[in-house]
Specification:
Elements lengths: L2 H14 L85 H22 L2
C-alpha cells in the first residue's frame, strides 16, 4: 500500500467520525409540585411541553441562505412554525402489538442490521 492510499483511507475514515453539532434547548425542565395532594394521582392526559427553539425571534440564520442576492433568513417566533416541527427530535415510538406484529418486525430488522455491522467489522480486524 502506498503512502497516498494510506492518506486517502485516513481521510475517508475521518469523514465518518466527524463531530456533529447538536442544538440544546434553553428551556427550563418542568418541575413537580413540592407537596402533591394525597388524593390526586398524576394524569397522563397532560400534553407534553413542546421544546422551544434555540434562536430568538429575528436572529439571522447563518448558512441557511445559499443563494446569492437573496435577503438574509431570519428566525421567526416559535408559534409561527407548525407544531409537528417540535416533535421531530423525539424518539420514534415502536408499537408493542404482540408476536408477528409490526413492532416485532422492526426490532428484528434492527437486530439483524446490527449483527451484519458487527460481522463486517470483525472481517476487517
Amino acid at each position: 500500500m502506498s503512502f497516498v492510499q494510506t492518506f486517502r483511507r485516513q481521510l475517508r475514515l475521518n469523514a465518518f467520525c466527524a463531530p456533529r453539532r447538536c442544538l440544546a434547548s434553553q428551556s427550563a425542565p418542568a418541575t413537580a409540585p413540592a407537596h402533591p395532594e394525597a388524593g390526586t394521582a398524576p394524569t397522563k392526559t397532560d400534553a407534553p411541553a413542546l421544546a422551544e427553539s434555540s434562536c430568538t425571534e429575528n436572529t439571522v440564520l447563518v448558512g441557511v441562505n445559499y443563494l446569492k442576492g437573496q435577503p438574509e433568513v431570519l428566525a421567526q417566533a416559535d408559534d409561527a412554525y407548525p407544531p409537528w416541527l417540535w416533535t421531530l427530535l423525539q424518539p420514534k415510538q415502536i408499537p408493542d402489538d404482540g408476536p408477528g406484529g409490526k413492532g416485532e418486525k422492526i426490532r428484528l430488522r434492527k437486530a439483524n442490521r446490527q449483527r451484519i455491522r458487527d460481522q463486517n467489522f470483525m472481517k476487517t480486524q
